[in-house]
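To the team - magnesium ion complex, inputs and output below.
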Amino acid sequence: MKNHTTENFGFHFENSYLQLPNEFYSKVQLNSVEEPAILLLNRTLAKQLELNVDALFKEGAQVLAGSQIPKNAAQIAQAYAGHQFGHFNMLGDGRALLIGEHVTKNNTRFDIQLKGSGRTPYSRGGDGRAALGPMLREFLISEAMFALHVPTTRSLAVTTTGEPIYREQVYEGAVLTRVAASHLRVGTFQYAASFCDREALKELADYAIMRHYPQLMQAENRYLAFLEEVLDRQASLVANWQFIGFIHGVMNTDNMTISGETIDYGPCAFMDRYDRSTVFSSIDRESRYSYGNQPQMAGWNIARFAESLLPLIHDDVDEAIQLAQKTIEQFPSIYETYYYNGMREKLGMLTADPGDEGLVDELLALMEENEADYTNTLRALSENKRTDEAVFQSPKFGEWEQKWLTRITQQGSTLEEALQVMQSVNPVVIPRNHQVEHAIQTFVEGDTAPFMELLQVLTNPFHLQPEHKKYTQLPNDDTPPFVSYCGT
Ligand code: AMP
Ligand code: MG
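Output:
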């Protein structure tokens, strides 16, 4: 047996995707870059992946920039379609190169993808490149999400290319090394259903089931069971987003994975004050993907997924539609169960009581009314602190608090026990937009220290060292509202 850690930087590629029909991917020519340099390497993740960390850091820049291909790499871009803000388009990896599926010793498979490595057959008018700032942003936020216990793709490295890229200004080009359970998306199935034959769609579905839900191979109706599983994962994922005030910003069907991992940190951002209508993305003019709409939009995406599976669910179209319909109708209640179970825990309610949903909703309404910061309010409650914030001063809060305390006592636990649980699920810090922007800006200008400190703080979001208190602060009142941008 080969020694995985010394050869090929420890990458051990087995490329199962290549067994799918050719129409699902395209081989990509290498795009050599001027002067690749690794700016960030996620050593913890590299170790977990059993990579040769030191060799990768010293000599891996060419590989991580997509200038050189390691042994046994797949070197492909994947085909997919998708509904972008409700409109169906053919897409595909226009600026990403799947170098291969890395398999660890315990047989876990990870896609290793280079984002921003140059043009592919799906680039259309784009240059296939990415700017340093947005790649730093994806690195920081995806790692923060992981630390917040949200399923997500991970970031292994950010590598600069030494080449300028041209947008409304000139930026430094960079490549993000993304690690994912797979890059199969709802949009991959829409592509198969729209542009391929039934046999190809079936091969894709069987492939996805084998890769992510192998237990379903024996199910009576494998494809209906597959729909149910993906629905369940997505419902759980969006509940996870709601728990921490995460707004994805571009929940197009091509950005929804079959594995249930969060993917594509373009215009995403975190909500400070609790407001269900919060939107940050400059291109989301109709607030389609606002915080409060996210669950509904995930349900909409699942309905698109169901449509693409119809030919497999049943030979009779009407029967297939009926079965799929029955399944997708369950999305709201499955989501609500995940959501209220999680929110119950966030409020230290360790048993289930019919009145719990009301208590959760009442607190959120109080936050909204008093423009309270979502994260800080929940954390203050978890530490049994009442600040001079308006939400805690309002008489209605006093009434709510009495009901809540009675509820905690009734479950047979002490307040102390409830607070312990609350502190383990209510973060002290989240990636606050003004801090993330400052960290990225200073990094791009050459001072990496603020970014590295923020990254370190966000890697341990349920604990805070006293000297890091500033990371819990909101932007000043005179800070202009945060706006995020896509595809930069
Ligand atoms: P995203 O908004 O990042 O999910 O991207 C949507 C689609 O646009 C995907 O097909 C991307 O591959 C493609 N795309 C985004 N930026 C570029 C770029 N600079 N060059 C080529 N394609 C791109
Ligand atoms: Mg995308």
